[in-house]
Design brief:
0% strand, globular, 234 residues, single chain
């Protein structure tokens, strides 16, 4: 019986270990995760075997390779239609398993717009503009930027939303989704979480993303984004 995401087993509340990877390996892992975590269109689905071949040839650290294999091993027995149905049931219908990173911090509050602008500013600081019809905090988009753009800026975006990524991983683990392996592999390429991030992650487990607040306090200040001063260099 599949567990509802409101109840997450204690066994899934584990910290993902940080694994040393080279810059080239990190780029490959993030690019593969970008494609595999995106909606499974027929074109992307056809590329899964090629992605697997590239990952197998990269001699990745064993823990990362095992996590990636959790997803890729499941695909030969799963049709595109089955994968599409699973994708929608997880990522489109569960508040604790969204691909939109700022949602974990701002939920459906009015702070969300400010958070989205910061993602756009980060891409522009790295010399990129959003070219697809998708919100800029979409995890596969951030991972593509990490793999092909400014790794330092992308790393800041991912680290700033680490508690949300960990909640995504935990939720996917709780429903035994093969997508959990992709998010776990991503987490392994990031720095180990500190105590403050761990506490925010545990609060997210308990409370979920924030709901809309009423009154002027809903527009309260957020921490300034540190890459805005580079926008003039485009």
């Amino acid at each position: 019986m599949m567990l509802p995401t409101s109840f997450i087993p204690i066994s899934h509340l584990k910290e993902t270990p940080s694994v040393r990877v080279s810059d080239e390996q990190r780029q490959l892992i993030h690019m593969a995760a970008s494609i595999l975590l995106d909606y499974p269109t027929p074109e992307r689905y056809e590329h899964f075997p090629l992605i697997r071949d590239e990952l197998d040839a990269a001699n990745l650290p064993t823990p990362v390779a095992k996590e990636l294999a959790r997803f890729l091993d499941a695909q030969p027995t799963q049709s595109l239609q089955e994968l599409e149905k699973h994708y929608v049931s997880i990522f489109d219908l569960k508040r604790r398993a969204t691909m939109y990173l700022s949602y974990y911090l701002t939920g459906d509050t009015r702070k969300r717009g400010t958070a989205l602008v910061r993602f756009t500013e980060a891409y522009r600081a790295g010399g990129r503009d959003v070219a697809r019809e998708e919100l800029p905090d979409y995890l596969p988009m951030v991972l593509e930027f990490s793999a092909t753009g400014d790794a330092e800026i992308a790393g800041h975006l991912l680290s700033s939303h680490r508690e949300g990524i960990e909640l995504l991983r935990t939720t996917l683990e709780s429903v035994d989704s093969p997508y959990a392996g992709l998010v776990a592999a991503l987490c392994m390429t990031l720095p180990a979480i500190d105590q403050a991030t761990k506490e925010r992650y545990l609060r997210l487990i308990t409370d979920g993303p924030p709901a809309e607040m009423v009154g002027a306090t809903a527009m309260g200040p957020l921490e300034p984004f540190t890459f805005g001063e580079n926008l003039g260099s485009r």
